[in-house]
Amino acid sequence: MRRIAHALAVLLIATAPAAGQSGGAPGEKSAEEGLSLLEEGARIILRSMIGEVEPALKDLQDEMGRALAEMEPALRDLAAMIGDMRNYHAPEMLPNGDIIIRRKSPAERALPEPDGEIEI
User: Fold this and answer.
1) Domain segments of the chain: what residues?
2) Cα pseudo-dihedral 9, 14, 16, 22, rounded to 10
3) How many beta carbons lie within 10 A of that of residue 10, not counting itself?
4) Would you place residue 116 in the very low, low, confident or very high pLDDT band (cuts 50, 70, 90)?
5) What's the confidence (pLDDT) of residue 11?
């Protein structure tokens, strides 16, 4: 938060001289300068925010990598047990909150899917 406050202060300081130097009639040039100053201020704020968030994202990436490395054997076993997902119906939630996933019968597996093609 402190960095954002610093970035806003820099933006205000940068715009102050520009406002005082516009001695002529308001024209297209001063509007362009104002837009470029706003653009630069936005860049400063975004750089500041990225600088604050970057260490947390790196930590999250490291933690996720470790978690996935620990879960990998169990996920491989589960994938081997399940096999092809097309062998199952969509999950259903029962009135008591249980979720069941029914296996398709061999006859159901032989039928083409609604958006699939039929071989002739």
Assistant:
1) 2-17+31-110
2) -160
3) 15
4) low
5) 63
| Residue type at 90 in one-letter notation | A
What is the torsional sign of CA 12, 18, 22, 27? Answer: negative
Cβ neighbours of residue 87 closer than 8 Å, sequence gap 6 or more: 103, 104, 109
Q: What is the pLDDT of residues 65-82, one digit of tens each?
A: 999 999 999 999 988 888
Alpha carbons 80 and 75: distance in angstroms, whole number: 9
Check: CB of residue 9 under 8 Å from CB of residue 47: no
- C-alpha gyration radius of the chain: 30
b (16+ CB within 10 A) / e for 34-68: eeeeeeebeebbeebeeeeeeeeeeeeeeeeeeee
- Take residue 64 and report the two structure tokens written for it: 């996720």
Q: Closest Cα partner for 42 from 19, 12, 11?
A: 11
